Amino acid sequence: MLQEKPMKLSEFQVEIAEGLIKAEVKMGRPSLEEAANAPANRAQPSPRPCNDARLDNVGHMIQYGSRQWCKLPSCHLKSHFYCIKCNMHLCINKDRNCFMEFHTKKTI
């Protein structure tokens, strides 16, 4: 190596470019197509309890916990309260009672 003549900068750049092209290394931002096909980094929705367990009126207790979106589809508010048995966050305040609605309506 010491006896070899140093390579010109332009030759070095060409060799690097050819090596990257052959290696198919992707650099930089993803293309619009790749970005559109990429999966979203969202949490999966929590599974809903079956209707028999949801409507049985046994063991459904309100617990205070972390603030999350109300799981009733018609509601778009956040709530600290969730059902211990169903493990579902549901609103309960003076204007709305999603907890009662979730545990009494047959179709949701």
UniProtKB/TrEMBL annotation:
Domain of life assignment: Eukaryota
Protein name per its UniProtKB record: PiggyBac transposable element-derived protein 4
